[in-house]
């Protein structure tokens, strides 16, 4: 008897889950535990650094090893009597939100490993020692750490495949489709978490360049565009170098600081986007010029 296609995919899910739990065990019980033990002696790196590198890997490992893998195994052993996995995955899906934290932290974790490997030879040696073990299969710590980042997209692909192969009258169809939708939402949630983190990080960098003025620092702002601009002075027919930051709610007209200690720019003027008008000017002497007029002021500017 040929095994039905959907059962083959469910078995593949079980096999990859077992391999994944082994990888999580290596990360949590070997790398994290041993690096933490050394950190406590004060000879390698601060304990805080080890915690930051591994984020919430312990919770992820516990969830998969103590709950999801056993549930999946039980279900596959009982497949002939009860051929379904959709309901088990529905129970799993909400917990996958835990990955948001791990995924968000991933780039930072890799940077920390690199930085502390250079700073602390004992730290580097301990990692190298663990990497030499058979269980590591000649792969680096960073490589193993990438696995949780890739796991949710893997669930999504396997589940898509599973739903596609299910016979129309399968008792698992409704549950499996709902499970797929839930996993898809979590994958989106984790991507959105990364995008949001990057946005805030970039915004913070811009605020530092502007000198962290209280009334400007707001996490909800959206930076749309920035760049150098020439300010035209009609009085003496000359131009001077300025810099613009356009946010969703304001235009910052800045002067580059000559001595760049601390902030890079000084904010000279802030024009509210609400009610602001931009008009192109036809000026033969100064091409690419335009007028920005807002509640606060009107500026005549020239682009490159």
UniProtKB/TrEMBL annotation:
Alphabetic keyword roster: Cytoplasm, Cytoskeleton, Metal-binding, Phosphoprotein, Repeat, Zinc, Zinc-finger
Main localization category: cytoplasm
Subcellular location: Cytoplasm, Cytoskeleton
GO cellular component: cytoplasm; cytoskeleton
GO molecular function annotation: guanyl-nucleotide exchange factor activity; zinc ion binding
Record-linked PANTHER family: FACIOGENITAL DYSPLASIA PROTEIN (PTHR12673), FYVE, RHOGEF AND PH DOMAIN-CONTAINING PROTEIN 2 (PTHR12673:SF82)
Name listed for the protein in its UniProt record: FGD2 protein
Residue ranges of every copy of the PH domain listed in the record: 222-304
A Pfam family that the UniProt record links to this protein: RhoGEF
Residue span(s) of domain DH: 5-193
Cited SUPFAM superfamilies: DBL homology domain (DH-domain) (SSF48065), PH domain-like (SSF50729)
GO biological process: cytoskeleton organization; filopodium assembly
């Amino acid at each position: 008897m040929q095994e039905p296609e959907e059962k083959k995919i469910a078995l593949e899910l079980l096999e990859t889950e077992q391999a994944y739990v082994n990888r999580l065990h290596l990360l949590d019980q070997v790398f994290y535990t041993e690096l933490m033990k050394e950190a406590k002696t004060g000879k390698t790196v601060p304990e805080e650094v080890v915690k930051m590198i591994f984020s919430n890997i312990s919770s992820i490992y516990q969830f998969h090893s103590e709950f999801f893998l056993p549930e999946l195994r039980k279900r596959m052993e009982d497949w002939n009597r009860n051929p379904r996995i959709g309901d088990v995955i529905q129970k799993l899906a909400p917990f996958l939100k835990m990955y948001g934290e791990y995924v968000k932290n991933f780039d930072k974790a890799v940077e920390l490993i690199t930085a502390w490997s250079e700073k602390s030879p004992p730290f580097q040696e301990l990692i190298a020692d663990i990497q030499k073990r058979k269980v590591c299969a000649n792969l680096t710590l960073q490589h193993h750490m990438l696995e949780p980042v890739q796991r949710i997209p893997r669930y999504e692909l396997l589940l898509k495949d599973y739903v596609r192969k299910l016979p129309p009258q399968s008792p698992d169809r409704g549950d499996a489709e709902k499970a797929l939708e839930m996993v898809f939402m979590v994958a989106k949630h984790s991507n959105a978490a990364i995008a949001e983190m990057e946005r805030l990080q970039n915004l913070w960098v811009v605020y530092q360049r502007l000198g962290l003025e209280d009334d400007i620092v707001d996490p909800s702002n959206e930076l749309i565009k920035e760049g150098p601009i020439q300010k035209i002075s009609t009085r003496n027919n000359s131009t001077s170098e300025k810099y613009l930051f356009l946010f969703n709610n304001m235009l910052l007209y800045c002067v580059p600081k000559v001595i760049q200690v601390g902030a890079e720019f000084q904010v000279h003027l802030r024009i509210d986007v609400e009610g602001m008008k931009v008009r192109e000017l036809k000026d033969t002497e100064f091409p690419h010029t335009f007028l920005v007029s807002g509640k606060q002021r009107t500026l005549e500017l020239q682009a490159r």
